[in-house]
Design brief:
By secondary structure, this protein is an alpha+beta fold. It has 8 helices and 22 strands. Helix 2 runs antiparallel to helix 3, helix 5 runs antiparallel to helix 6 and helix 7 runs antiparallel to helix 8.
């Protein structure tokens, strides 16, 4: 039962193939399982669990109830119940008789990844994203409840419980297998296997193997063993043997029969080809043996002639080298005598030079003792080191002379040894080459005779095999077991043919090795000539080694001159050191005076800082009066900005106090600005109200003027009509009306004047407030400098 991306397929296992029996329309099925009896299987389709009949592939029922994807299912041993767990945090136990939910437990927020039960289905175990193993049991009245929780420390992806309830296996997301003791107590053993999370963990039906599969594409098979030896032996005795029968389709049998017929034909063809090839090989080998025999005989004769020539050349070289060695010995004795004489003279000169240096040292010591006792000790130590160096060099020269003599003797012994070894090696190689070729020739003859005998045996075997093949053809039709023997015979024949081919290849390789050996002998001859050239070169090198000795003697003379110059440099260095000491003392006096001035400036700065703190404290008293505070701060800045700047860092307390005062001033400015905005708004509303009242008054004045005009116009016709009315009465009425109007006009003028005065007062008040407010700098601008200059 395999879930693919498009369908769920039910397959049967054949001998060498898997055959699809039924395809079900469930896409990307990640959870499917056969029942313990095998008659049913369950497949998860999202949140639904479908139950199918294994033999008919019919859907017998569906289990619905999960709100999230189902992650794990477990069959009871009697196939009457099914337990499921999903990502919705629910664990359900289903009764398959009527496909109803019998028990349930829901834990929100936990995504379950695996669930299982004991053989009696009374206890359930589940694990999920909370990294815990939960044990569920039924309790009267409350249903299924969690009775125990084991902290796993990591997410377990799969669990397996053995039927004997002896151990519980768990798979982690880190690729490890854990073995928990049962009943669960939290103790476990961990085995590292995979590199990624383990996706499946199953045990075989006999619980002898445990199989784990991981997301990294690997599968591990674990051997499960019982620590109890008696229980393990009993289980081994009760184990049922695997069936030997396999399922094979008729088409495969027909293919096998056709293949057998084809192989029989191939065997017949191969036998004929093998016989023909063997005959050709015999003829070719006979011709090849004859050619090799003639070739090696001719090469042996040529090698014998070369050996004689080399022997004569060796004798000539011995005579020549003996003469050269005698001449080299005579020259070396003469040169050694001359070198001894030269070195004796040079040693005497060095001794005289040494005596002169001692006298000069004594004179210098007497003169320097008066100046400085310390300098005298250093000079004595230097002169002692020089004497030791010269004595050591004299000893080294004597050792070098002895080493040259020993090297000469060693070279003579080495030359004699090389000469003797060359003679022995040449004789031994010639004898070995001769014996080797004779043994190889004899071996080739023996191998040719053996091949002829093996050829006859192979012919007899071939005839016997033909008879066996004919007999087996008759027996194949009767018994299946005889067919297996025939296959074995074919395989042996193929091996014999392969061995014959390998033997032929080995013969060709042997011939190639012999040719390479001949080439190696030629190479050795060339190496002997090179060795001769090397000996000549060594003789020349011995001559050249005498010349470097004279160069070394001249180098030693130059070293003595350099030592004299170094001694003079020591004198000059001492005089320079005296001058340096005087200059350092002067510098010390200057630094002391500078330190004194720095201390004085530091004390002045401290006093100024104390005065500044006192002035800042006095200014802080005007913190509630912005205008006075501004004037005090300006005065403080003028007072201290004209003085010399203190070149030191500001004290921490003064800086913090300045920051605090600055923050307070900024808050004060903000509050004053808010108050100004509020007063401006009130002033604007007052102005608007006054303007409205002025407009109303002007309208009223205009109306009064129009009324006065109308009254004046009405009074003139009345006065003209009456004519006879007395002047006293008419004049009194007009005077009364005019007086009333005049008083009303004066009242209006007074009101307008008072309003104008109020407006002027308020404008002055606004200007005063604007003058008191210090404008706050923008965030991108710098604040005004502090009074204390750093």
């Amino acid at each position: 039962l395999i879930g693919f991306a498009d369908k769920l397929r039910l397959l049967t296992v054949l001998m060498e193939d898997l055959k699809v029996i039924k395809e079900l329309g469930i896409k990307a099925c990640r959870e499917c399982s056969f029942s313990c009896g095998g008659q049913y299987f369950a497949a998860v389709n999202g949140t639904t669990i479908s139950i199918y009949n294994t033999y008919t592939a019919e859907n017998v029922g569906n289990l619905r109830g999960h709100n999230g994807r189902v992650r794990s299912i477990f069959w009871s041993p009697d196939d009457t119940k099914l337990i499921s767990a999903g990502m919705d945090g629910a664990v359900y136990e289903w009764r398959l008789k009527d496909f109803k939910r019998e028990k349930e437990h829901v834990l929100k927020g936990c995504n379950y990844s695996s669930v299982l039960a004991t053989p009696d289905c009374k206890t359930l175990y589940a694990t999920g994203s909370d990294k815990r193993i939960k044990e569920y049991e039924d309790s009267l009245g409350t249903g299924t409840q969690i009775t125990k929780e084991i902290d796993a420390g990591t997410n377990l992806t799969q669990m397996v419980l053995l039927s004997g309830a002896k151990a519980l296996f768990g798979a982690t997301e880190g690729g490890c297998i854990r073995t928990y003791k049962y009943p669960l107590s939290g103790e476990f053993q961990e085995f590292k296997s995979h590199n990624a999370s383990i996706s499946r963990l199953k045990n075989t039906w006999d619980e002898s193997l445990l199989i784990s599969a991981s997301e990294d594409g690997s599968i591990f098979v674990w051997d499960v063993r019982d620590r109890d030896a008696k229980a393990a032996a009993k289980r081994e005795q009760e184990r049922i043997e695997f069936a030997v029968e396999v399922l094979v389709t008729r088409s495969e049998l027909d293919e096998k029969k056709a293949r057998m017929t084809e192989l029989e034909q191939q065997v017949a063809e191969l036998t004929m080809q093998t016989e023909y090839q063997l005959r050709l090989k015999d003829l070719h080998l006979q011709e090849r043996i004859k050619e090799l025999t003639d070739k090696y005989t001719a090469e042996q004769e040529s090698d014998r002639q070369k050996f004689d020539a080399l022997l004569n050349e060796k004798n000539d070289m011995e005579m020549e080298y003996e003469e050269k060695l005698k001449a080299a010995e005579e020259r070396s004795q003469v040169q050694l005598a001359t070198l001894d004489a030269q070195y004796q003279a040079k040693i005497m000169a060095e001794v005289e030079r040494y005596q002169a240096l001692l006298q000069e040292k004594e004179l210098l010591n007497e003169r320097w003792d008066e100046q400085n006792s310390l300098l005298v000790e250093s000079h004595e130590r230097v002169i002692a080191e020089l004497t030791e160096d010269y004595e050591a060099k004299l000893a080294e020269e004597a050792l070098r002379i002895e080493a040259l003599q020993a090297e000469k003797a060693e070279l003579e012994r080495e030359f004699e040894e090389i000469k003797r070894q060359l003679e022995e090696d040449a004789d031994r190689e010639i004898e070995e080459t001769k014996e080797k070729y004779e043994t190889k020739l004899q071996g080739e003859r023996d191998s040719s005779l053996r091949l002829k005998g093996e050829n006859g045996i192979m012919r007899k075997k071939f005839n016997a095999l033909q008879k066996d093949i004919e007999a087996q053809k008759e027996e194949i039709k009767q018994l299946f077991e005889q067919k297996k023997e025939f296959y074995a015979t074919i395989a042996s024949l193929e091996k014999d043919i392969g061995s014959l081919k390998r033997e032929i290849r080995e013969r060709d390789e042997t011939i190639g090795d012999k040719e390479r050996r001949i080439y190696d002998l030629k190479k050795k001859n060339q190496e002997l000539e090179k060795f001769k050239f090397v000996l000549d070169y060594k003789i020349k090198e011995l001559k050249k080694q005498i010349e470097p000795r004279e160069a070394e003697i001249s180098d030693m003379k130059e070293q003595i001159k350099e030592m004299d110059g170094e001694l003079e440099r020591y004198h000059r260095t001492n005089a320079g050191l005296d001058l340096t000491i005087g200059s350092l003392r002067q510098k010390q006096a200057g630094l002391a005076s500078e330190v004194l001035s720095q201390r004085t400036s530091k004390q002045d700065a401290t006093n100024m800082l104390v005065r500044l703190q006192g002035d800042i404290a006095e200014v802080a008293a005007f913190i509630q009066e912005p205008q006075a505070l501004k004037e005090k701060v300006k005065a403080l800045y003028q007072k201290y900005s004209g003085e010399a700047c203190l070149k030191r860092e500001e004290d921490g307390d003064v800086g913090r106090e300045g920051a605090r005062q600055r923050e307070y001033l900024e808050k004060t400015v903000d509050s004053l600005k808010r108050k100004l905005a509020k007063d401006s708004e009130l002033h604007r509303t007052d102005n608007l109200r006054i303007m409205q009242e002025n407009t109303a008054l002007i309208k009223e004045i205009n109306e009064l003027r129009r009324e006065i005009k109308t009254l004046k116009a009405g009074m003139k016709p009345g006065m003209m009509g009456v004519g006879t009315i007395g002047k006293g009465t008419g004049g009194a009425l007009a005077a009364a009306d005019t007086e009333a109007q005049r008083r009303e006009m004066e009242i209006q003028r007074d009101l307008i004047q008072r309003l104008r005065e109020d407006l002027v007062v308020k404008e002055q008040r606004i200007k005063t407030l604007e003058g008191m407010v210090v404008p706050r700098p923008m965030s991108r601008e710098r604040l005004p400098p502090m009074d204390v200059v750093v």
